[in-house]
Amino acid sequence: MAESSVFHRDLHSSLPVAVAGEGNYLIDGAGRRYLDACGGAAVSCLGHDHPKVREAIKAQVDRLAFAHTGSFTNQPAEDLAAHLVARAPEGTGAGRVMFIGSGSEAMEAALKLARQYCVENGEPERSRIIARKPSYHGNTLGALATGGHEGRRAPFAPLLIDVSHIDAPYPYRLKHKDESEEGFARRMADLLEAEILRLDPATVMAFVAEPVVGASLGTQPAPKGYFKRVREICDQYGVLFIADEVMSGMGRTGTTYALEQEGIAADLTTMAKGLGAGYQPIAAVLASGKVVDVIKAGSGRLWNGHTYMSHAIATAGALAVQHVIDEENLLSNVVARGKQLASTLEAAFGQHPHAGDIRGRGLFWTIELVADRGTKAPFDVAEGIAAKIGAAARARNVMTYPSQGCADGTHGDHVLLAPSYTSIPEEIDLIVETLAAAVDDVLGG
Ligand code: PMP
């Protein structure tokens, strides 16, 4: 085959060509079938060929593809926005939704909306952002600056805006031995208050967090009470709370929004992956009633626009995905298969000498690999343990999402699993069996 002209992530190795999707399997040009245990990066929550989603997209292609949002709205965008507002966590109010193409764009839009809110609310001195480390919020410059992912930030450092990072709650390494979950939650949330006070509360615009951390740390839920305290602190100091649900949202953790399980609402919420489930490139920002009201009373305009906003085919595809999740009662399957995944991971890795931590929620689980379980010492990142395990699983025809640890040793290599919401028990068993075999291939068993 001639050398590829696509700018792939790795220019030295050749990739198989994906030619088809069948249920929860991807098929390459040689006819090889891979069970998709991660949906890419927690994207493909309805497998790869759902007939209802395909039909809805085809019907929209025949009806209308694009009408510019400067002059028109369209029905699928209106219906999808209404669906997302209706399901938003209690306290969101009469929100509005903006549709764009990717999670990174959604984060940029949320940051800009936060700024618009502050300016229109008569507080132009509020511009500072506080986020967490580790975290990942996207690849565009503003989103990359907001993320606390050292490896991805480093090469671009001089271009990044200044964002403060506090520690994200990571019980495996940060919870003190005799600390209660509530005490840990309080201590970690209070880091936010300390940072707001250090910066000067009148200058802080927003706090950004993933309700369940995804790519940077691997499916880390917050301890009980953490987000309630975060909400209190944000309210006390007039700071907006931006929930990045790009990975955790749209049912991945068993509820439409992961934040629902924390009993609070965010001021701005981003979502992406499970929204279009990979059938269409689409992301969204949900602005709460509080934000919308200030803008309505102010300029009355959204100070943000992208040419392909509210794209009719993208929103029609995503609307079909959300209807399928409802009609097929898939959130209850996420909970049931999630319990199975958690218990089979525990059975396979609970005593494994290199499995330091097993964490997650719903169909969103991770194992963290360590060199020494006793001391929790991570592997040297140069060894590329997670990548090797990902490759070994792939050699056994199962796709996982491996990530390397942080070079400073603050967290270890991990492998993330995010199977489709349509998974059947046999697929969950096969995923865990294969991952266990892949770990043994790399680390010995
Ligand atoms: N936020 C989170 C929490 C993510 O996981 C990601 C993608 N992994 C993004 C933002 C960026 O999304 P995208 O890659 O679609 O730009």
Provide an overview of this structure.
A hairpin with a 6-residue loop joins strand 8 and strand 9. Helix 3 packs across helix 12 and helix 14 packs across helix 15. The model has no long low-confidence stretch (mean pLDDT 96). The protein has two domains: 148 residues, Aspartate Aminotransferase, domain 1, CATH 3.90.1150; 272 residues, 3-Layer(aba) Sandwich (Aspartate Aminotransferase, domain 2), CATH 3.40.640. Helices cover 38% and strands 18% of the residues. The chain contains 15 helices and 18 strands. The strands form four sheets. Strands 4-12-11-10-7-5-6 form a seven-stranded mixed beta sheet, with helices on both faces. With 445 residues, it is an alpha/beta fold. The site of 4'-deoxy-4'-aminopyridoxal-5'-phosphate (PMP) has 16 residues, from helix 4. Keywords: Aminotransferase, Pyridoxal phosphate, Transferase. This is Adenosylmethionine-8-amino-7-oxononanoate aminotransferase. GO terms for molecular function: pyridoxal phosphate binding; transaminase activity.
Strand and helix map with partners:
Layout lengths: L17 E5 L2 E4 L4 E4 L2 H4 L8 H13 L11 H12 L9 E5 L2 H18 L7 E6 L7 H6 L3 H4 L10 E4 L3 H4 L6 H19 L4 E6 L2 E2 L6 E2 L4 H12 L2 E6 L22 E4 L1 H4 L6 E5 L1 H9 L14 H16 L2 H20 L5 E7 L2 E9 L4 E2 L6 H11 L2 E2 L1 E3 L9 E5 L7 H19 L2
Parallel strand pairs: 3-16, 5-6, 5-7, 7-10, 10-11
Antiparallel strand pairs: 1-2, 2-3, 4-12, 8-9, 11-12, 13-14, 14-15, 14-18, 17-18
Helix pairs in contact: 2-12, 3-12, 4-11, 8-9, 13-15, 14-15
The site of 4'-deoxy-4'-aminopyridoxal-5'-phosphate (PMP) has 16 residues, from helix 4.
